[in-house]
Design a protein that fits this description.
- The complex is a heterodimer of chains A (about 350) and B (about 260).
- With about 350 residues, chain A is an all-alpha fold.
- Chain A is built from 16 helices and no strands.
- Chain A has one domain (about 10-340): Orthogonal Bundle (ABC transporter involved in vitamin B12 uptake, BtuC).
- Chain A has helices at about 10-30, 35-45, 50-85, 100-110, 115, 120-125, 125-150, 155-180, 180-195, 200-220, 220-230, 230-235, 240-265, 270-280, 285-310, 320-340.
- Chain B has one domain: P-loop containing nucleotide triphosphate hydrolases (Rossmann fold).
- In chain B, α4 runs antiparallel to α5 (about 150-165).
- The termini of chain B are far apart.
- Classes of the chains: A mainly alpha (about 350), B alpha/beta (about 260).
Chain lengths: ~350, ~260
């Protein structure tokens, strides 16, 4: 007796090879041209032509590429989780108000700094300061959503509650922005553009640790998520603890999205678009296949977006958020036009 | 049959309905049922009389207002969700959410109460899944996506999923609601066969009254005044079917053993 479910191992091998290739391309691109051979030498501690190249690669390009991989897979996994939980193809990692919470935290830090005192203002320019403000904001808004969610049985209501909290926070941000100086506004805008660079190795370690904790929650809900594909009633009849699964999903998503937003800003569209793209490649709903597939595809796409954003051989770096949206929106439109129907 | 053969389902003094903070709305009370395994039961009653509420209460989706339910001689209140999933499986009327699950994957989900944390299918699981496909004659659909199935095929596949769960009891809520006569009869005879040949206890809520009268071993009749359960023949003999619809338009003919439209006298 054979299990007729496709294993997709070939697709996985191709994806992983693509990831490695894009990773190398990403590292070899930048404002300074460094030959490929020298890049390898930098890694293996070999005799590199210029010592500054080693520093560019190990302290700037490599951390950025690693950040891109974590951000891409984390957001894509969160997106997939939200789409399954809410059975809504338009759900993404930010539907729970995480991004609005983070934005609110950073907005209060940067825009509201003048109300809070001068010593906060100096702190607002450090990335740790923004990360802490963003995670606090994300955590507070998310707790509010979770408390509300605990009182509602209907999963769809949680979606709407999350959206409502989003509207509330953006209203507060508008008020703050109205009373801010041009300088503060610019600073806030820079954060909201998103950025993958600027992370020190310490920050990447923090990002990675929370990422791993988030992923370990995901591993335990793969099986119940599959039964949720038949709806909550069937899932319950198969012994699934729907409430616990829902909580695990919410915790995993908030950890992943929260920490990513804290360090790299609200990155748009990846969480929404990547699961749909992946389902085009893997026509399955089985989370045992989809979760790793989405993680790898998310990493690949984030690396591609980052490679485009830094405009090879030029001094300029485009905001990563603009690239992901420019890339994400047309894909969703194309998907809808071509397939007519998207499955989640 | 032995006199003291155990009851797969025993209900005493059950009251069903909804409890809110302010008041209790009772839909039916004093329900008593004793059911032995290997029987096909049809739950009959008009729309809104509380058939779904009864099934929801029996399957622990909602709590009973009063009374006791024993499934396989265990009190329903003390059965864990996972143990209940090994005793009782469901086929619901609700539409499945869109997904690209294949028929195999859907049926294999029925093994969830038995598989390990990641849902690995052992060779024993595979055997049970294949048996479920064979019993429902759906093996050829295995690689089809669920959204490609016709209503009739989907119903058989959903029954296969319940069979893969391999429970002594299968509860079906209006399994033939969207089906034509051909597929309805097909589904009913499949269920009847599962009860008589594989000793499953099948509980069906249905509006196919005349089919139920021909095929069901037992009937549960729900009307606004009372609830009766028992062997089909006995219920007919005791004129219990006369008041099922309490309407002047519908008449139960004892000779035909069917409901007919009353002719004005």
């Amino acid at each position: 007796m054979v299990n007729p479910t496709k294993s997709y191992s070939n697709t996985f091998i191709i994806l992983i090879l693509t990831l490695i290739l894009i990773f190398i391309i990403n590292i070899s691109l930048g404002s300074v041209y460094i030959p490929l051979k020298q890049i390898f030498l930098a890694f293996i501690d070999g005799n590199i032509e210029k010592e500054s190249w080693r520093s560019i690669i190990l302290n700037y390009r490599l951390p950025k590429a690693i950040t891109a991989i974590i951000v891409g897979s984390g957001l894509s996994i969160s997106g997939l989780l939200m789409q399954t939980l809410f059975r809504n193809p338009l759900a993404g990692p930010f539907v729970l108000g995480i991004s609005s919470g983070a934005s609110l935290g950073v907005a209060i830090l940067i825009l509201g700094g003048s109300f809070l005192g001068a010593n906060i203002v100096s702190y607002s320019f450090s990335s740790w300061g923004q990360a802490i403000a963003a995670s606090t904001g994300a955590f507070l808004v998310l707790s509010a959503v979770m408390i509300a969610a605990a009182k509602v049985r209907n999963t769809m209501s949680i979606l709407i509650i999350g959206l409502m909290f989003g509207s509330l926070t953006s209203a507060v941000i508008s008020v703050l922005a109205y009373f801010s100086s041009a300088n503060q506004l610019q600073q806030y805008m820079f954060w909201s553009f998103g950025s993958l660079g600027n992370l020190s190795w310490n920050e990447i370690t923090a990002l990675l640790i929370v990422f791993i904790i988030g992923i370990s929650f995901v591993v335990f809900i793969i099986k119940p998520l599959n039964s949720l594909l038949l709806g909550e009633n069937y899932a319950k009849s198969m012994g699934v603890n729907v409430r616990q699964t829902r909580n695990f999903t919410l915790i995993a998503t908030s950890l992943l999205t929260g920490v990513i937003t804290a360090f790299s800003g609200p990155i748009a569209f990846i969480g929404l678009a990547v699961p749909h793209l992946t389902k085009l490649l893997f026509s399955t709903s089985n989370h045992k296949t989809l979760l790793p597939a989405v993680a790898i595809s998310g990493a690949i796409i984030m690396l591609i977006c980052d490679s485009i954003a830094q405009m090879p051989n030029s001094e300029y770096t485009l905001p990563i958020n603009a690239i992901t949206s420019l890339f994400g929106a047309p894909i969703i439109i194309w998907l809808l036009v071509r397939k007519r129907k998207i499955y989640y | 049959m032995e006199q003291n053969e155990k009851h797969i389902l025993k209900v005493s003094n059950l009251a069903i309905g909804y409890r809110s903070k302010k008041h209790i709305s009772t839909i039916a009370c004093n329900l008593n049922i004793s059911l032995k395994s290997g029987n096909m039961v049809c739950l009959l009653g008009k729309n809104g009389i509380g058939k779904s509420t009864l099934l929801r209460t029996l399957t622990k989706v909602q709590p009973a207002l009063n009374g006791e339910i024993f499934i396989d001689e265990k009190n329903l209140k003390s059965i864990t969700n996972n143990d209940l999933a090994k005793t009782l499986s469901l086929v619901l009327t609700e539409r499945l959410p869109d997904s690209s699950l294949t028929v195999f994957e859907l049926v294999a989900l029925g093994r969830q109460p038995f598989t390990n944390w990641i849902g690995y299918l052992t060779s024993e699981d595979m055997e049970i899944i294949y048996t479920a496909f064979e019993k429902t004659n759906t093996k050829h659909l295995m690689k089809t996506k669920c959204y490609e199935l016709s209503d009739g095929q989907l119903q058989r596949v959903l029954i296969a999923r319940a069979l893969a769960q391999n429970t002594p009891i299968i509860v079906l809520d209006e399994p033939t609601a969207h089906l034509d006569l051909h597929h309805t009869i097909n589904t009913f005879s499949l269920l009847k066969n599962l009860a008589s040949e594989f000793n499953k206890t099948i509980i069906i809520s249905t509006h196919e009254t005349n089919l139920a009268l021909q095929l069901a071993d037992e009937l549960w009749l729900m009307s606004s005044s009372k609830f009766v359960s028992g062997k089909t023949e006995e219920l007919i003999h005791n004129n219990e079917l006369d008041n099922l619809f309490d309407s002047d338009l519908i008449h139960f003919s004892k000779t035909l053993k069917q409901f007919t439209i009353s002719h004005s006298k």
